[in-house]
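Request: Could I get any protein with tokenized structure?
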Amino acid sequence: MEMILTVVAFFALTLFLVRRHLRAAGGTGAAPPAPALPARPCPRCRTAVPGGSAFCPACGVPQQVFEVVAAREVPEAGEAGAGPAGGALHAVVRADVCVGCGTCVAACPEPGAIRLQGKLAVVETALCQGHGKCVEACPVGGIVLSSGAAVHRVEVPALSGCFESSVPGLYIVGELGGRGLIKNAINEGKIAAEAIAAELRAERAARDRCAPSSDPGLLDLIVVGSGPAGLSTGLEAMRQHLSCAVLERGTLADSIRKYPRHKLLFAEPLSIPLYGDLWISDASKETLLEVWQTIISNTGLDVRVQHEVRNIRRDDGRFVVETAAGPLRARRVVLAMGRRGTPRRLEVPGEELGKVFYDIVEMEAFQGSRVLVVGGGDSAIESAVGLANQPGTAVTLSYRGAQFERAKERNRAKLDDAVAHGRLRLVLESRVRAIREDAVELEHGGTCHRLPNDYVILRLGGEPPFAFLERLGVRIVKKDLPLAGSSEAAVA
């Protein structure tokens, strides 16, 4: 009994002393309230958006759409990966380069310092020791060391809140603008088309007061690309009563067709112009393509396939879009192309099959598959080595040359190591003659061999889109995107 009384008295005295100390210090014992996030202007309508709010209270646009547009621009003198100096050296992932292969995770000697979050490698700066092993291991050069803030660095066109580029009247939406999320792409296209419609209405009002003009061959808008961003732009333009044509160098929604088969897209409703709410829960690209086809058939949107755009130039205040089918003229142009440019093709039977890709969106999608990579440059080697690190993936690299003369020494060393350890098969002086549903016909040593195959990755080079943009006069900048949950994310 005495022991119990002693324990009770001890805890009572302790509680009394703690409360008196807190009262003397002016505290209540409760945790201090978190500082309120500052309000920020909506990039679209400039209305103040309360800190932490996901939507603009005036125009209702989700603020995630402007993540890249509103991000800090890195000064020209800044080197890749170098944020504000002063912190400990740590790894920084380039979100526009990372393919989510996970090679960096296996290479890092610090458990938990780098991990895959969705399809992107994420660095835990508190655990990262700056060893640089992930930098050496990354097959696509998507990681750098920095002593600055916890950010992803991306190279993107400089765009306004309505996605207008530094060239007046030329807009950029979708993946080319910095992020490939389908929900963002659809919203960006809609916002750009609304802004264009408002501008053209104001121009017509001013022009009609002076001297009416008639030019039947002049379109209000030309959209380049028939992916989610391009189709959304075209549909909103129709809703705004603009004359519009959507140009596609290949087939309808070619960018979606090049996703890995069975790729999950999104699981939330989206508002599609002239269609309404679109709900596709955990669906494949084939399902979304069927929806696009239905929407186009029902609305009558003018989509012109096999219209590769070769050049865009200004002429008397208008845009002239030169295509393989002839020139077109428009008051405004929206570029809704992918970031991967116009790839070179093999021009062999079967290249149109859905198993053929010209880039890799995410390497883990090919786990357990038989993959043929074709090409002799750094991109081909990087793709092959990255795929070879995926569990259960059988990778063959085919190149028509006898040696890799154009590849970096670092990449050649990684390739040699993968071949030596049996993770990758290399077939030099070989050519693809045909692609079948379940195989590839590969010519090597004067004989055509049938190679069982699930996917073909063609890395043959091509014209990068940024070179095309720079010829048009579009300013390209580097931006730092704060990592989710970091202190930078609250103020960016």
Remarks:
- Residues 182-210 form the longest helix (29 residues).
- The two ends are 62 Å apart (CA to CA).
- The first strand starts at residue 40 and ends at 41.
- The CA atoms of residues 215 and 329 lie 10 Å apart.
